[in-house]
């Protein structure tokens, strides 16, 4: 039995609360907060306290462009829920590894990946893990209060680092992230390493309800995309409003191949907000 | 991108929101530009006058077909030619207060300028409108008035001159044809007097006469031939009668004498010997007589060969012979008479033939002259009619009855400046400020290949569009947007307020 399983069994015995991190709605809406639900998970708390782990509140996440479950009337929230449903249907209920990449830089691939993760986490029966695979231009760390928390590159470089040490919670229940890490000089060849394969196997197999989302680099880094798509079950291509031409999109799709392609997400269509 | 109309409409709305700053910027720039243009636009006062060009006077129905009215087609073009002519332009310039002593290049430029500011158009069929624009209302009025006045004057003069020239021309033509006609008449007269035979019907007369002559000549010739035959027959008869009678009588006498002598000889022989001188003598005589018969025979033979005979008295005294001779002489005279008649008839025939020939050549000439005469007469009569028409037209123009010009609407002193007013610039600015950016956005939608509508993604493999994610407004963005919208609204309102203020100021100044 792994340590996490042990911890979970303890948690069930303790209070029946599966949540390691308090639900986003319960968290005070302003500022950062230390995970304070000590009664829920003493071991985790002690570890987090050691790493001075703090998480961002719902308001901060909203500020960073993350959808919130309570904003159900927001069409964006509905769209991500719909996208989630479609993926679940596609994977026939099984958990899956989804690589999200964009047609070109600035198409909002990260935005889609982050919010897709959030949408999975909204579902009580599912958890989501977002891995920042865009090592050249990482952005997942912005969801954490501690931006310098160890991430993927640290895991590759540091043999002592355990997988659980690089998985960090964010201010949404059932949502975890792995950042790109502090070491930026690391090359993408690590994606082909045994360690990466081990990581992916572990994170996927550990929980059957966990959906893993890889925030990949844009399609201009075609070599990385090929490698990452090998690790993923599905590939989702993001095209942005007034940014991509049909030719560009067609070229990307040809490079990935039909087998794993899930579809295209047309991102950032202008919407006139209701201003009160 | 090929979009459906509703997609275009939706895309235009979202794009307008997306490019709101650009739109406001263009709106402000366009408005400021047009406001400036409106401020700087020179005030132009336009005076106009209408001239009724009436050719349907009471005279026209009366003179239908007789007097030709000047064609009124493209009257404005004609009017432009007349008014922009150097003659009128110089007078107008002088009237407009421009000094005569300006240099020629300056004058040319000035004339061109005035031409540009003058609009000549036709309203309806018969009304000519002259408009002139100037910065000075007083001068605009004066110039327009002068234009109309000079135009009418010039038109009437020109028309009178035109119809006068037409009359003169037709008059000259008429004179020419009259001369020609007179000349032809003279020639005809001469020809008629020179060929008196050449009268109508002389042709038939000549033919009759010729036929008569031919018939008579033929008859005379026939008679002559008969007389000749008769003459030959008489000749033959006369000579044959004489010869035979003469010869036979002489031989008979000789033979009788020979018989006498023979009987005497026989008697003598009874008595005498042959040597008797009587017998010898009788023998001699008989021989002589035989010689005589022979000689006679020979002579008769010879006469028969030569055809001439010299009848002796016995023949002449023969009554048959005498009858024949009489007939012969009568016949001779008949022949002579007939010969003379034929000669006369031949002469007459020649005369008649030459007369016929003469008559024919005269006829041809006569026909030619008559034809000329008729043609010339027709043309002359037509010209006479035309001359009278022209005279009437000329008189109409002289009396100003043909084409009347009436000033329908006299020029007035313009009170308010014409042309695009300040308000037009202001309203145009607002309109253009909206139309230009939206037009540009539309253009961008049409030509920019980048996808703006999710359904416009056409990719291979029939890959689905998983979803279209709308822009997620973060609270900060919404705050910023609120500020931005407020600010942009303020800019637009301020621009419109400024426009309104300028317009009001302008209006008050004008009042």
Summary keywords:
heterodimer, A: 276 residues, alpha/beta, Rossmann fold, 7-stranded mixed beta sheet, two-stranded antiparallel ribbon, 10 helices, 9 strands, B: 511 residues, alpha+beta, 4-stranded antiparallel beta sheet, 13 helices, 5 strands, rod-shaped
Account of the 3D structure:
The complex is a heterodimer of chains A (276) and B (511). Chain A is α/β, with parallel strands linked by helices and 276 residues long. Chain A has a single domain, classed as P-loop containing nucleotide triphosphate hydrolases (Rossmann fold). Helices cover 37% and strands 17% of the residues of chain A. In chain A, strands 5-6-4-7-3-8-9 form a seven-stranded mixed β-sheet, sandwiched between helices. In chain A, a hairpin with a 5-residue loop joins strand 5 and strand 6. The longest helix of chain A has 16 residues. With 511 residues, chain B is of the alpha+beta class. Among the domains of chain B are: 127 residues, no CATH class; 171 residues. Helices cover 74% and strands 7% of the residues of chain B. Chain B contains 13 helices and five strands. In chain B, strands 2-3-1-4 form a four-stranded antiparallel β-sheet. In chain B, helix 8 runs antiparallel to helix 9. The relative contact order of chain B is 0.15. The model of chain B has no long low-confidence stretch (mean pLDDT 83). At the A-B interface, helix 3, helix 4, helix 5, helix 10 and strand 9 of A face helix 1, strand 5 and helix 13 of B. Strand 9 of chain A pairs parallel with strand 5 of chain B, so a sheet runs across the interface.
């Amino acid at each position: 039995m792994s340590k996490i399983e042990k911890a979970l069994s303890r948690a069930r015995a303790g209070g029946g609360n599966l949540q390691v991190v308090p639900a986003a709605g319960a968290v005070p809406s302003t500022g950062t907060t230390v995970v304070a639900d000590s009664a829920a998970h003493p071991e985790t708390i002690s570890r987090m306290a050691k790493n001075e782990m703090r998480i961002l509140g719902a308001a901060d996440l909203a500020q960073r462009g993350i959808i919130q479950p309570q904003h159900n009337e927001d069409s964006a929230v509905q769209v991500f829920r719909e996208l989630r449903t479609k993926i679940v249907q596609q994977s026939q209920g099984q958990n899956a590894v989804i690589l999200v990449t964009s047609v070109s830089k600035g198409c909002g691939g990260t935005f889609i990946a982050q919010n897709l993760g959030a949408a999975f986490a909204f579902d009580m029966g599912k958890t989501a893990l977002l891995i920042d695979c865009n090592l050249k231009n990482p952005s997942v760390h912005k969801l954490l209060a501690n931006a310098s928390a160890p991430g993927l590159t640290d895991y590759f470089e540091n043999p002592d680092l355990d997988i659980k040490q690089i998985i960090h919670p964010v201010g949404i229940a059932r949502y975890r992230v792995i950042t790109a890490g502090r070491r930026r000089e690391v090359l993408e060849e690590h994606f082909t390493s045994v360690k990466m394969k081990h990581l992916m196997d572990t994170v996927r197999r550990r929980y059957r309800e966990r959906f893993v989302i890889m925030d990949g680099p844009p399609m201009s880094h075609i070599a990385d995309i090929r490698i990452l798509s090998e690790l993923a079950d599905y590939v989702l291509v993001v095209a942005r409003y007034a940014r991509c031409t049909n030719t560009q999109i067609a070229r990307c799709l040809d490079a990935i191949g039909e087998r794993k392609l899930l579809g295209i997400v047309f991102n950032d269509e202008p919407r006139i907000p209701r201003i009160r | 991108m090929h979009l459906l109309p509703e997609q275009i409409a939706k895309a235009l709305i979202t794009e307008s929101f997306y490019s709101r700053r650009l739109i406001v910027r263009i709106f402000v720039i366009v408005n400021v530009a047009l406001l400036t243009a409106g401020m700087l636009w020179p005030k132009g006062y336009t005076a106009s006058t209408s001239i009724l060009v009436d050719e349907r006077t009471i005279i026209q129905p009366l003179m239908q077909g007789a007097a030709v009215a000047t064609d009124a087609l493209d009257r404005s073009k004609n009017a432009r030619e007349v008014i922009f002519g150097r003659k009128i332009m110089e007078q107008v310039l002088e009237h407009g207060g421009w000094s005569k002593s300006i240099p020629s290049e300056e004058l040319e430029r000035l004339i061109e300028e005035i031409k540009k500011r003058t609009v000549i158009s036709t309203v309806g069929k018969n009304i000519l409108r002259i408009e002139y624009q100037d910065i000075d209302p007083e001068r605009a009025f004066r110039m327009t008035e002068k234009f109309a006045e000079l135009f009418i004057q010039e038109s009437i003069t020109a028309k009178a001159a035109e119809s006068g020239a037409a009359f003169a021309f037709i008059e000259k033509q008429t004179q020419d044809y009259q001369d020609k006609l007179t000349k032809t008449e003279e020639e005809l007269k001469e020809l008629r007097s020179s060929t008196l035979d050449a009268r109508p019907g002389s042709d038939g007369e000549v033919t009759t006469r010729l036929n008569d002559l031919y018939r008579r000549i033929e008859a005379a010739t026939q008679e002559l031939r008969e007389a000749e035959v008769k003459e030959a027959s008489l000749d033959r008869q006369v000579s044959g009668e004489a010869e035979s009678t003469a010869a036979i009588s002489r031989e008979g006498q000789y033979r009788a004498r020979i018989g006498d002598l023979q009987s005497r000889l026989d008697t003598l022989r009874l008595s005498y010997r042959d040597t008797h001188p009587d017998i010898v003598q009788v023998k001699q005589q008989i021989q002589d007589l035989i010689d005589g018969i022979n000689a006679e025979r020979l002579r008769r033979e010879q006469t028969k060969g030569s055809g001439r005979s010299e009848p002796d008295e016995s023949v002449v005294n023969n009554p048959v012979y005498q009858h024949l001779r009489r007939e012969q002489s009568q016949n001779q005279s008949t022949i002579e008479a007939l010969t003379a008649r034929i000669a006369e008839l031949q002469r007459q025939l020649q005369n008649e033939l030459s007369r016929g020939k003469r008559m024919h050549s005269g006829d041809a000439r006569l026909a030619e002259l008559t034809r000329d005469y008729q043609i010339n007469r027709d043309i002359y009569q037509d010209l006479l009619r035309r001359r009278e028409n022209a005279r009437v037209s000329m008189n109409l123009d002289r009396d100003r009855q043909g084409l009347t010009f009436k000033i329908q609407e006299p020029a007035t002193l313009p009170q308010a400046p014409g042309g695009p007013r300040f308000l037009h610039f202001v309203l145009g600015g607002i309109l253009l400020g909206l139309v230009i950016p939206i037009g540009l956005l539309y253009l961008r939608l049409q030509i920019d290949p980048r996808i703006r509508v999710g359904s416009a993604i056409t990719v291979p493999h029939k890959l689905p569009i998983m979803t279209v994610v709308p822009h997620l407004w973060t609270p900060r963005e919404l705050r910023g947007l609120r500020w931005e919208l407020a600010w942009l609204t303020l800019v637009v309102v301020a621009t419109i307020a400024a426009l309104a203020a300028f317009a009001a100021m302008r209006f008050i100044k004008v009042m």
